[in-house]
Amino acid sequence: MCGGRVGVGVTISAIFLYIAYVFQFTTRTFRFALPMQLL
Question: Any transmembrane segments, and where (predicted)?
């Protein structure tokens, strides 16, 4: 039971890291794309 709980924690942390990476990538893309559209 304890091992399964650790596995769930690792999965959740991996998902959060993936979301953080995608969020950082999208914000960086928008930061470059929006000024181009405004100009």
Answer: 6-23
Please choose, from the candidates 25, 27, 5, the residue with its C-alpha nearest in 3D space to the C-alpha of residue 17: 25
Q: Which two tokens stand for residue 2?
A: 């304890």
pLDDT tens-digit series, residues 18-38: 999 999 999 988 887 777 766
To 5 degrees, how large is the angle CA 10–CA 13–CA 14? 85
Predicted structure pTM score: 0.56
Q: Which tokens belong to 30?
A: 């928008």
- Looking at this protein, which amino acid is placed at residue 14? A
